[in-house]
Sequence to fold (468 residues):
Amino acid sequence: MYTTRSLFVLTLIKLVLSDKSCYWNEECPFGLYSTKTPYDTVRGDIRDWPTPENCEAISFWALIRHGNRNPSDSVTSAMKELQAKIKDQIIASYEAGNSQLCAQEIQEFRKWTWNDTMDISPSYLTGEGYEEIYDMAKRIREKYPQLLNGSKDQFYFRPSDKQRTIASAMAYVHALNEGTALNLTADSSRERDDVLRPYDNCERYQTEVRGGQLLVDQLEAYFNTQEYKAVQQAVQQRLGIPYQLTAADVYNLQELCRFYRSWTPNLKSPWCAPFSHDDLLVLEYRDDVRHYYRNGYSSWMNANLARPVLKELYETFDATVKGEGKKIVSYFAHDTLMEMVYCALGMFKDPEGITAQVRNPNRMWRTTYIAPFSANIMAVLNRCQESGTQVNRVQIFNNEKLTSLCPLQGCTWEQFVSTFQTFTDAPLDFCRQDYRLPDLDPAPASAASIRVMMGLVLLLVSLAILYK
Fold:
């Protein structure tokens, strides 16, 4: 016979169990996955922004990141190895009563199988990625139909030499061609392209930034933060598996979550179930740190590597103003260049920078919003009639949203020139290791150079004591 106290305890247990949060039943699943965020999750819509009054678009320029892609070789290998170790353990843990996951999530784990296409097509554009770019171009076509006429030489499209950008360019041109007689095609990619991949052949960048110790130290510091360790512990407890997850395992588990999620019709994956929303906010920050120290404001080189592509923007519009330009120009590149362009334009710059140890929830450098799949900078040159005079105005959008670079009514041509003409000077001489930097080099001193300087100071002090 139940006592009043036992009835109270049973009721409390029922309330706790009925209130259990299950990933599969969430009405709004978490969708912020840094640079692996599907474009439609965060984009705006170019069609919603009005053309300035008494104006008509006469030239359109865009720099576009490729669409949704498969993971790279190294990520695929790490994901495959991890799921082989723990999938059966996750199911067994639930059956033994050691798991905090829900029945539906375990059911999805039982049905889940590895996607073999990743093994044979690493980093390739996915079907979802093709649709992202195709739909974007379709919106551009609907917004600026007057640009889609004339001869083929009034259009120019060029991808980098990677399959994911080449296929993205094909999707883009596919959508622009529909309903026209233009039969547009993209230019061939170049084996060496100092406009779209200037960092590939920049020895100084590859050595000091991408392969530099500062990036390594920041990522190591991130994995050692109390926030990250708390996520690691929470995920271990939710799964209840005997295999002890490392810091790297937790990150690879998130990779399984975000890549597989982006391929499913309902944008869900059982591999996301071990994470709470707060966990995923912490994990999102890892890529913010990585991209900040690889492509962002941590190095003066990054902004300078963006100058060649911004030179292309300025010269495209300058030629159009002179009556010699093209109607639509679009380049297809990667998040590396997108983020370098942001630095060159002073966008998304946090006054105190980004560090691994402190995650500012209100930071501006948040790759989910600035560098998702299909991220872009779009610039529109408009010809306007103002007080009986013909003038030019430029609108600039980021991911089909308004930017702080120009107001909705557009920058005046003079304002555009004052900002962008400087990019016509776009040398890459600094990429050579033997290039002598100016005296006012803003790059921070390396640990090695500091040690050399300290050694010289100690030597001078020793000599001074010796000869005193």
Observations:
- The CA atoms of residues 138 and 175 lie 5 Å apart.
- Confidence is low (pLDDT under 50) at residues 6-19, 440-468.
- The beta strands are 55-65, 155-159, 328-333, 376-386, 389-398, 401-402, 411-412.
